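Section: Multi-chain targets

For targets with more than one molecule, the full set of components is provided together so that the structure can be written out for the assembly as a whole rather than chain by chain. Components appear in the order listed by the source. The example entry contains two components.
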Amino acid sequence: MPVKRRPGTRVEPESVSELTTERLSVYLRCLEGLDRARIKTVSSRTLAEHLHLNPAQIRKDLAYFGEFGVRGVGYYVTELSRHLRQILGLDRRLSVVIVGAGNLGMALADYPGFRREGFEVIALFDTAPHKIGGTSRSGVPVLDIAELKEVAAREHVDIAVIAVPADASQSVAESIVAAEIRAILNFSPGAVRAPDGVKVKNMDLTVSLASLSFYLAQGTNGQTR
Amino acid sequence: MPVKRRPGTRVEPESVSELTTERLSVYLRCLEGLDRARIKTVSSRTLAEHLHLNPAQIRKDLAYFGEFGVRGVGYYVTELSRHLRQILGLDRRLSVVIVGAGNLGMALADYPGFRREGFEVIALFDTAPHKIGGTSRSGVPVLDIAELKEVAAREHVDIAVIAVPADASQSVAESIVAAEIRAILNFSPGAVRAPDGVKVKNMDLTVSLASLSFYLAQGTNGQTR
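Its structure, encoded as tokens over all components, is:
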């Protein structure tokens, strides 16, 4: 498929930002909804209205990966969904481990959305002897962190999630890197460092509360209901 | 402060999207980092490079709320941070309750980022008799869901977080609405419905994994390291 880019805006794949990939994921969610509603085609303008985004931004995001739109028609919903799943790497099963079998780790291990989207949580890891050997409610086993490297190699683990207290997060990140896992989702507060070639995404749950705070603040000013 | 808008792109405050408010929150996080590094001014271009965003998008997002930039200087870091905190409603303490004292609820009650940003989790609510009367590790009390309305009125609760299984989420949302809480952060899979005047934000943790999946997929294709 030919990749169309505007002259003068050449972008290296490395520079596709997390905000862009999150938008792609949001487009995919919306398209899957349209698909379930048996809607066949959608324009960037309609997508933009659904998502409160600029149509030009949507066209630009999608054009970066190929020529998906058809003039006078828009996008074919099923086809674009399939392409986005492919671009996002969601067309295959991804193997996930979670380090930290506390409340957050256990909650994430049992999070129903992960499996639905093709992410399989194969194990939790911890250092606490009383946790090792147990399982999460849905049956994910808790293993000794000492086994991480061996399990990662045997099971081809794609992504490690850090769900330990802040003071342990950097040393956990180093164990993950040593186990040759190439993608880290960090729920611990504060950023963790990893060498080039390992992608770290720091989750900040306060961003979602801030978005509600905005709504309440505007409401207080009488600007929204 | 005068609000500058492009002619022909008049936007109602209601239509400021969640993606925009999340970008504002990301700008704020970046500006706070610059502020700690004692950097006084920053251009939209430099901000854009930090965040892998389009400078025009940043200028547009900020211009919507007022004329913050100074020609030839850029933005004053401390001043813009303060304005963004105000716009996001983060210049005051917000009172939060969490419904569901399972693993996720307990993890959220003890999440250190919330308090740092001015969100105070004042109580967890549950229906299970063996949980009621207990506390989270950091001391947030678990109360009977039957007390929600009374507590919400007495403590002026701003935001309720839903952390219950999917099959209970809609009835919990209705209890929250009945308690006259106007903002809901829903961690249960599947959207919950609420009447006009109540803002619901559905959190989808799979979006963050999808962003890592994209990186791995591109890497597998040899397009990134």
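Residues 94-206 of chain A form a domain with the Rossmann fold fold (CATH 3.40.50.720).
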